[in-house]
Each structure stands twice: as structure tokens, then as C-alpha cells.
Amino acid sequence: MLDRPIAGQITKPDLGQGGQHAAASPRSPIRADMIWVLDDTAFDEATYLQAYPDVAEAVKLGTLNAAYDHYLAHGQTEGRTFMPDYREIAQRRFFERPTAFDEILAASAPAPLWNIDALMFAPCGALSLAGWANDGADPIKFVILQTQDHALRLDQSAFARWRRRDVETSLTTPIAGHVGWWSLAMLPATLRLRGRCNVTVRFESGASSQLEMEMLQVDHQILRDMTMAHFAPLDYLGDQVAESFTALDPFIGDQVTALSRIISDNFIRGAISERFGPQAATYNASIIVCLYERASYFFLQSALFSEAADHGYEFIYISNSPELADELRDMARIGALMHSASVTMVTLPGNAGIGAANNAAAALARSDRLVFINPDVFPYEPGWAARHLALIETLPADQTRLFGVPLVYGDGALMHGGLHFAFDVGTTMGDSYVRRVAALRIEHTGKGAPLWAARYTTARPVPAISGAFMSIDRAWFEQIGGFSQDYLFGHFADADLCLKSGAAGQAVWLHDLKFWHLEGEPPPAKLHHQGGALINRWLFTRRWGALVESHLHTPPAAEAPAISKRPRRASPSQDQSNP
Amino acid sequence: MNTTRTERPRVLLVSMFHPELQRGGTQQMCYELFSGLKQRGDVEPFLLAAIDKSYPALFKPGAHITGFDQRDGEFLLLTDSYDPEWHRQTNPAIVQAYIDFLQTIRPAIVHFHHFHFFGIDLVSLTRRILPESRIVFTFHEFMAICQADGTMRRPFDGSLCRQASQVRCHQCFPAQKPEHFLLRKLWFQHHLAHVDQFTCPSAFMIEHYVAWGLPRARITHVANGQDHDAVSATPLPSPDRAKNRFGFFGQITDAKGVHILLRAVTHLRDMGFTDFTLDINGGNIQFASPSIRAEIEDFLAAEQALPYRERIVTAHGAYHPDDLAARMDRVDWCIVPSIWWESFGLVISEAWMAGRPVICSNAGGPAERISHNINGLHFPLGDHRALAETIIQCCTTTGLWAKLAARLPKPPTRAAMTSEFAALYA
């Protein structure tokens, strides 16, 4: 259900820009407006024009389109970015060296108090830093990091702010707003920030101060996880989710996603796989299970899904937990021996996330039908394997290209009859603004209902389905690009795939083939997983919020069957008219 | 050793432990059946007994199934890895060895006695390897139903459980979610679905398994039968002397209720009633819970410290079947104070063979087999005061022993049990 704005208000919750974050590449381009790396070899248009008036004149006359054209044609080979004139101007611009008047002003207004708590760098180019500044009256303008080899400037918009109650308690001076700040930035992979680091903070008044500290070198996964663990519990003046979205929007959200993609890609590249049991060239379907941290469900599924082997299914298990490798390998061997099943065991060197792992497993499949299931999903009744294949063979293709099933709790109630979407709206606030921010929420349709409530279990198109059981035509899976690998650790990747399918014109269906989903109260999530969940929710909202919101506010129409406010019970003819 | 194989149908008995190595009712009954089938001669029996590392010298590098003491048709499954939570094999090499063994023996019938120490998953594996074979499974307690060591006795208050469920099992094991117990049930029932015929040594057990979900039509009651020769030669107590000598025979574990018996002795001593003796025959106290073990050991130590004339209880330790007649000779009554659904009570059969009436808890197999005040006595399960009163009654009621002893049933024989199983194999 959409949490609508209060009647009479004319503002709408901020949904971000749908699609803006839809295709993060493994390494997002450096945001030149927020990060500036001072490097002898770096080209900067404005600096080049200022250093070489002849080029500026040519551009002015239209002989050249831009200074960069000259740099490519001549400047690069002439080494113009290494020449003293260029370097002096570049450095002056980079550091924004104050004028004499600024220096007088700065002397009369000392820099606000600030400090840095953490400064980490990973070899892939990820930089994470966090600190605080009592800069309510004189905001930070930028921060410069100088190591022996490099200088880097981060604009204030590259930082997110949060509330530091410890600072508020410790400082005797008045404090307003969020004094904490943090950032995560992806820098050029060639950059190596190491050793002692001089940190300069420049404020709007021109005042600045600096300190020196060690740049901590860490593995990129550790950097991400530590940063996410830092991000998850942050305190704000406003609503935590809304403030988190505000923190992620300008810069950090894309940076985290890009870093996570690098981590995932590295893990996928390091995968090892083995096949056990009888092997065929092709199968009727491929059951794909992504495992994480817990091995025990493996042998349970091998046994309880064993009828699949008699119907031409293969099993592909992919593990995000390398520490389980040997145990899982033994289980795979036993599963193949016990049930005469074809088992493929893929082990990743770390947690690549569900989306990336499932995509990697799908690449090893030898059938045209992919069935993604969670490790805690089990057949509800015998005969499921044949019924699943019969659905695909007998129903129109557009009803089975992507479909889910009713999932049943261990207590016998319905756990899932499809997914639908809702918004939570929270308030974010700064010194001069209050804004409402909407965050998408995924709900399980019919959760807790009795199984005889056919309105939730009958075959019909639904807005989305849980990845706990997802049957998809392989060609369609590949056509829509598989699971997004941008979601950290994996949450939201299933709904994202469904919305991608809907946006590409293929409705998602639910068919009444019940499975247990033994979801119980999970143990408390690790802090970095909590941070990842926030990032994922932000990303999912930014990608799909506007689309979902437009459908929620618009009565279901022929052009929009895949996303609806409530699950619609459609007749077969309606179903076919709304593919 | 006979190296010539006949064309008789082969029966493979798969057993938890070998009775020569570890005493216990399950393995003893399996071995009785193995011996009975050998005597009949119409089938060719094989025994595969799973053992753990209690006898490390019996293990051989690289071997997972091997012979046993040059005995014809007897093999050991050497299990060095086992998942006691899910009762499954965790070593692929053992699974492969079992497959090879089945394909070598090619039995027409595979009869499992319990699944402990070899794994419930070997049942469905047997079906896959030998799809035409007949699979028989004998329950010896309720481990498939109940995680509390198959006792169906609730750990938090000692009460007997009559029906397992996700929530009730979670109450017994709060650290595990209800879903765990659904999975546990799915797991066991998946494997047991491959069984053609179940048997239980007591009729009451059938109701528990039917309530759990097994089809009644596939469960049969086959009473445990034994060779009577070993115990039937025991001299009967003199009719003239008082019948005030009591004996316990069996495992010194929580479920067997020795501590209830000792509490009854303490109660009687406090009452000033001391004109009786109690012999404790049995071992394996290391499998008792720490608190019960301490209670029993403290009692026995204190008893040992008393002047000889004041001692009531004597612990004789574990015994071999060959010693049973001599041990029985020392007592007038056997007490079976089990605090769980004792599935059958082999000691009852042994006591009857020796002509000794039995005093038992009023639940499970013992209550089913013994008719109160007809051929034995019941007392309320776990009630040491009631047991104390029963002991007084036995010691002071003239003619009670003779009345009960005169009506002792004849326990099932090995031959009778073997015939019943042979009928199920057909």
C-alpha cells in the first residue's frame, strides 16, 4: 500500500530519478565535479586553456572544439601536462590557494573544529573516510588528501552527513545539525594512496586546517564491509531510511555499488566448479541453489528434491561461503551417490552476492529452464517435478516464461502468493530544509493466509515473485540480462528481475505448485548486511520507484499489468490479454 | 568358513552395533534373528553391524566394510564419520562401500534394525541400488519421531509425550526453531517411505508411528524373541524363604530409571524398612546424564561406606549373557523402573525365563506385557514412593510371589520371532 501524502499537502515524496542508477558499470566514472585527482599526467580542460593561451584562442575562434582535442593531437606527445606552467596552474586551481584578502579573513575566523576517525584505501581504488566537523556556521568546502605520490580533492557534496551524539556531548561549543561526515569514493585503479597522509579541510570562509595520519591499507571487501557496518547504524535528526537515501543520492550510493560489483566480479572470476554423478548433455530443467554460511540444507534438499533426478533435472549448487567447500563437496558426492543425481558444485572464494552467484550458476546450466530456489525451500508434496514440467509444456509460453509458486510456512500458513510493493515515507532535514523521501518496500502477498484462500494461490499474473522459487525460461533470463549484480549480498535482486521482465513486456505469473519455505525469524543481521540492505533499498527505489509509483497511482490498465497496487485475480482471458 | 554360496534368497540384516562388542537390546534382537534365520536354513542371512571407534583395532586403513572375527556372513560397517543430529552418513567413501556391498551380496530382503550409527539415508540408497528388494525396518524406539534420544519423554519435566509436533518439539528444544522439526520429520519420512514393511516389538508403538504419519497397514507387531536356553536353567527361589531380594538388569542410563529405584531405597530406609536387598546389574553409566550419574554414583559410594550389615544395595556391574542365570539366581523379583516408553523390555523376557515376576513402570512395552497383579506388578512411572510401597508389598504379602510366578507367560522364542519375520519377507 502506498503511504500517501497527507491531504492538503502539495509536495510529493522524493522518489529519485528512475533509471538513473539502472546500469552501474563495474567501475563508475570518476565524478569530476566531486573528486579531483591532481596528477602530472591528468588532463584538465580549464587548466589547459589557462596554461596555453594559443589553444584557448583557437577554441575561441572555433578552430578547435575543445582543449582536449589539442591534447590528444599534440599535447599528450609534447608532454604539456608535465610542463611547469600547466602544473603550477593546476596546483593553484586544485588547492584554491587563497588570495591575500582571503588569508586576512581566514586569520580572523579560525577553522571550525574537525577530526578524522577513519581513513582507508583498498588497492582497487576504493577510498573510505569518516570524521566530524562542527561546521554549521562555516561549512566544509572541500577536503584534500595528500600522500607522497598523489593529491586528491573531494568536494563537500561527496560527503554524507550524520548525527554525532558523542561529539555533541564532548564539545562545549554550540552544535547544530549533522556534524558527522563520511564518504566512499572509487578512484582510478592506477592510484595508490599509501603511507602518511596530509588531510586539509577547507571551509567556505577560506579558513582551513590540516592534520596528518596514516592511510590504512585494507582489502577491498574489508573496506566495503567496514564502511557498510559504519553506515548501517548511523544516527540522524530525521528518519533513518530517508536520511540514508539522502546520504546516498548525490554520490556515495553509486560508489558503493561500483565497489561491490568489483568485489563480486573478482569472486566470480575465482570460482571453481566440479560435477558429480551421471552427466548428460542436456536436461529438462536446472535447479540452482545459492548457499551461504550454512551447509546443512544441502543434503536435505538433495534428498527431498530427489524425484527431480528421475525427471531430467540437474542440480547446480553455488556457494558464497568458501569455508564450507570441503563439507559441501562431500555432500555433493553423497547426494550424487544416494540419488543418482547430476550435481554441479560451484565454490566462490567469497560472498559475491546472490545475484552474481545465480548468474554464474546459470551459465553452467545445461537446460532451457532455470529454477532458482532458496536453500530452505522444499517440496510440499510428491509429484512436483512432473507437474512443474507439465506447466511449462501445457500452458501458453507467456504464462510460464517467468513464474513463481505459493510458498508455505512450516506452520501451514501461506508465506508467499506473489510480491507487491508499497512505499514508506520518512523525513529528512537539514539547516534550511525539510523533505519527505519515499522508500520502496516489498511485501509478500497473502502472508499468513490459510492455504485454502485461493485468491492468493490461484494462477495469475503478479507484480513480482520471490526468488525463493523462481522458474524462468533461460533465453528470457539471458535476454533481460539475468539478475542485477548491483545489489549488495543480493536482497531485492529477485524483485528487480521481475520488474525488468515486466518492463520488457513479459508479465510474471504465479502457478499453484506449492513448496515449503521454512523461513523463520532470522538471527540478527550483521551490521554490514544491514548497511547493504539500506543500499539495496535505495538502489531499488531509485531504479523502480517512479515506475511503481506511477502504477500505484494509476488504475491498472492494459498497458501496465506487471505492477499493481494489489494482486489482481484475473480470468484466463484477462491474463492472456495482459502479457 | 563356508565359501560356497547357495541359491537361497539372501537376507541382509543391518544392525546398530554388534552385540559381541556393545550390549543392547537392538543389536541383541538383530543377532537373535540372524541366528534364527541360520537355523531355519531357508534363507541365507548376512549381518552388517555398524560400529563406532569403541574398538579402534577393528578398523583397517581404507576399509569401510570388513568381516568380523572369521564368522560366516557377519560384517562390520566401520563408521568413523556420522552426523548424529540428522542420522546420516557424512563420508562418501562409506556410502560407496555400502553400494559395493549391496551389489556384491545382492540380497532379496534388506532388514534394518534401527538406523543409529549407519544412517537413515542408507534406507533410500538401498532402494535405489536394489529397486526390486524388499525392505523391512524394525523400530526399537522412537528416534525417528523424537529428538530426545527417541524416548518421547519431555526433557523439561520428564512427562511422557504422546504426539510430536513442531511446536511441542520446539518446547523440548527451545534453541531449535519449529521449522527444524518439520524438516526433521520430512527427512525421516522421506527415507522411510522406501520401506515395504515396518515392525514394532510392542503393539503400543504402532499407535505412535501411525499418529506420526506412517500407514497403519504397513506396520506389524513382531515381539522380540530369544533363545531360552541361557536363562531357563536358573534355579527357582525356595518357596519357604521370604521374597525380599530385588534386582535391576540393564543399562545404567537415565531412561532406565535406576535413580528412581535408588530413591525408593532411600525412602524405605528413611521409613525404617530395611529388610530387603537390591542388586544392580548393568553398565554403561558413562551414557547417563551428569546429574543422574552423580546421583547414582554418590548413592553407591555412600552405600559402600556403610557397615556391611546395613547395606541394602550391591552393584555387580555389567554382565555377559552367559552370566545372566547366575545373576538371576540371586534375586526373587526383577524391577524395570524405566521412565520412558520402554519399547519392549528384554529383561522381562529374561526374568520370566528365570521364573521371576517383574515389577515395572505402568507405561510402554512393560505395561503392555505385564498384567498388574496377575503376573507382575505396576507402579506409576517415575514415582519412587509408589515403588517403595510396592517393594514393601512384595516383601510382606504372603503368597504374592507364588501367585504371580505361577502365571508368568512364556516369553516369545527366537524361533517364533524368526518365523514371523520370515513370513514378512515373503
What labels describe this entry?
heterodimer, A: 579 residues, alpha+beta, Spore Coat Polysaccharide Biosynthesis Protein SpsA, Chain A, 2 domains, 9-stranded mixed β-sheet, 24 strands, disordered N terminus, B: 426 residues, Rossmann fold, 8-stranded mixed β-sheet, 6-stranded parallel β-sheet, 15 helices, globular
> What top-tier CATH class of the largest domain in chain B fits best?
Alpha Beta
How much helicity do the residues of chain B have?
Answer: 25-40%
The CATH H-level homologous superfamily of the largest domain in chain B = Glycogen Phosphorylase B
CATH level-four homologous superfamily name of the largest domain in chain A: Spore Coat Polysaccharide Biosynthesis Protein SpsA, Chain A
CATH architecture of the largest domain in chain A: Alpha-Beta Complex
Number of helices of chain A: 18
Structure description:
- The complex is a heterodimer of chains A (579) and B (426).
- By secondary structure, chain A is α+β, with helices and mostly antiparallel strands.
- Chain A contains 18 helices and 24 strands.
- The two termini of chain A are 24 Å apart.
- In chain B, helix 1 crosses helix 15.
- Chain B folds into two domains: 10-226 and 414-425, Glycogen Phosphorylase B (Rossmann fold, 3-Layer(aba) Sandwich); 229-406, Rossmann fold.
- By secondary structure, chain B is α/β, with parallel strands linked by helices.
- Chain B has 15 helices and 16 strands.
- Chain B is globular.
- In chain B, strands 3-4-2-1-7-8-9-10 form an eight-stranded mixed sheet, sandwiched between helices. Chain B has a six-stranded parallel sheet with strand order 13-12-11-14-15-16, sandwiched between helices. In chain B, strands 5-6 form a two-stranded antiparallel sheet.
- The mean pLDDT of chain B is 94.
- Chain B has helices at 25-40, 92-105, 121-129, 166-172, 178-192, 203-212, 229-232, 258-271, 290-305, 324-329, 346-353, 364-369, 384-396, 400-406, 414-425; strands spanning 10-16, 44-51, 65-67, 74-78, 82-83, 88-89, 109-113, 134-138, 197-200, 219-221, 245-249, 277-281, 313-317, 333-336, 358-361, 376-379.
- The chains are: A alpha+beta (579), B alpha/beta (426).
- At the A-B interface, helix 9 and helix 10 of A face strand 6, helix 2, helix 3 and helix 5 of B.
